[in-house]
Amino acid sequence: MAGVNKAIIIGRLGQDPEIRYFQDGSAVANFSVATSEEWRDKETGEKRERTEWHRIVAFRKLAEICGQYLSKGRQVYIEGRIQTREWEDRDGTKRYTTEIVANNMQMLGSRNDVGPQNAQGGGYNRSPQGSQGTQSGGYPGGPGPGGGGYPGGPTGSGPSASEGAPDKGYSDDRGFKGNSQPDIGPDDDDIPF
């Protein structure tokens, strides 16, 4: 029986997205989104709030769009899957990170809005179909060179930042198949049931 791995969050960016490029020219964006929940303490009646930070990673065209249109404080809807990766840092220590691999992003509010008002903005949807090359060396996460030697920000035929955020979703059928992302899950033969 197949499982379900889906995450949906609405929150605000904690910093501008960090964009890097692989040797094959495909982009990867990393950023954090904060979500908050509020409740009243039953004993004191005080209003309480807890903020949770979520690490987000986006690939290819979605990464370029995130880099072009998202900024610190911007409210965003992210849909994707939860992934835990393992790598060794420069000291040889094993490190782990859990993140949401985004496949759908909607910008909420206006382009200049970093406050609590919400208005439906533009978005981007990447369908997980097809194949688009391979990443050189996989996706190591953590600090280090992004590879590819592509200076400057993303380029493309989409609207420029001066034209404002797009008001429609974008679709990219290149998706996740092939070697475009590291295989981190267990093989079906390794599952004991």
UniProtKB/TrEMBL annotation:
Amino acid composition bias (Basic and acidic residues), ranges on this chain: 165-176
Alphabetical UniProt keywords: DNA damage, DNA recombination, DNA repair, DNA replication, DNA-binding
Disordered as annotated region, ranges: 103-193
One GO process term, biological-process aspect: DNA repair
Sequence ranges of Gly residues compositional bias: 135-156
Cellular component aspect of the GO annotation: nucleoid
InterPro entries in the cross-refs: NA-bd_OB-fold (IPR012340), Primosome_PriB/ssb (IPR000424), ssDNA-bd (IPR011344)
Pfam family, one: SSB
Molecular functions per Gene Ontology: single-stranded DNA binding
Bias type Polar residues, positions: 103-119
Chain span(s) of sequence motif Important for interaction with partner proteins: 188-193
SUPFAM superfamilies, sorted: Nucleic acid-binding proteins
Subunit text: Homotetramer.
Main function: Plays an important role in DNA replication, recombination and repair. Binds to ssDNA and to an array of partner proteins to recruit them to their sites of action during DNA metabolism.
Protein name (database record): Single-stranded DNA-binding protein
Species name: Desulfococcus multivorans DSM 2059
Lineage of source species: Bacteria, Pseudomonadati, Thermodesulfobacteriota, Desulfobacteria, Desulfobacterales
